[in-house]
Write a structure and sequence with these properties.
Length: about 180
Amino acid sequence: MRVMTMRNYMIGLMSAAFLATAGSAAAATYEVGDLTALTAGEDGGWVGSIAFATGSFNDVFNFSLSSQSDFGAFISRLATKPNQLLSSFAGVLSGPAGFSQSFNFAQFGSTVQSLDYTGLLGAGNYSLSVSGVAGRGGFYAAQLQAAPVPELDSYLLLLGGLGMLGVAPRRRRLGQPS
């Protein structure tokens, strides 16, 4: 009878250990939508406060760009104490045609960590992965923005208009009707 009790105790202990390690990794997926349209609207992009639990996490932000855009992302973590900083805090942006870019990491003082990336991105679907390991739960802030880049014909039209503005005063000085 005693052997059975010890066996049940060991099985229970192993089950608890398995559940504790299985629950230590967390992941969430956020569907942002067309970031170009969000940035052009009154919201000015996408901003979120993301919660994480103790242990490792890997959050994914999926978004699209409807045209070539200047893209910028800023992820920040403000800890109230130095021992609450994240370890292995990283961000990776991936997109069309095998595009993959790691974010820049910075730490300010003993309580602020940040990830950032800016660059020119083509139209398409993108995925931003933010990961880290937390000694205790908390939050981080995420901000994503994209500003469409004008196409060449827009610049040519602008230059043509400026040229016409320059010709009109000159013709007037020479006495010719404009």
